[in-house]
Amino acid sequence: MPSQEPRTDVDARYSSEGVAPTPWPQARDALAAAELFWISTVRPDGRPHVTPLSALWHGDALYFSTGPEERKARNLESNAEVVLTTGANLWDKGLDVVVEGTAVRTTDEALLRELAAAWEQKYGGFFHYDVGDGCFLHPSGRAYVFVVAPRTAFGFGKGEPFSQTRYRFS
Asked: Based on the structure, what is the number of domains in the chain?
């Protein structure tokens, strides 16, 4: 897992003059509060694939789930590099956060039970999961669970002052 406090810098080319970096705790809180994320994966032929999904900030990483037959799960078999994006669909308000990292499947059933409870607490009963065979289990099948520890993240502060903060994890 990465260190909790990343190295942080502002890209002056895309930031208001003299703006300070968005603190990592603020970006981390935005990740924890977000209900919708967009995941970007790469198809085996190199074409990009982007789709919305729920995700959970837990500990120092993002977790998401997907059915084994879904396009993103099949993409991860050949290339585990992902980008998870969340934020507001507004030009001049809010903070968008982008997390880059490697998706690693987790099958630890104690952790999966902890995550299933956290998912239901965050999203409600629609996201009720049982756990078995190293997966989330739900009425329409099973779902693999992946963890993405941030390698690099970006915070895009929108509105005056505008800012682009890069977070580099060791």
From this structure: 1
Domain membership flag for residue 104: yes
2 assigned to some structural domain: no
Over the stretch 16-52, which tens digit does the pLDDT of each residue have? Answer: 999 999 999 999 999 999 999 999 999 999 999 999 9
Residues 6+ away with beta carbon under 8 Å from 110: none
Q: What is the mean pLDDT of the chain?
A: 95
Tell me whether residue 110 is in a domain: yes
HEC states along the chain? CCCCCCEEEECHHHCCCCCCCCCHHHHHHHHHHCCCEEEEEECCCCCEEEEEECCEEECCEEEEEECCCCHHHHHHHHCCEEEEEECCCCCCCCEEEEEEEEEEEECCHHHHHHHHHHHHHHHCHHHCCEEECCEEEECCEEEEEEEECCCEEEEEECCCCCEEEEEECC
Residue 158 to residue 163: CA distance in whole angstroms: 7
Residue 1 lies in a domain: no
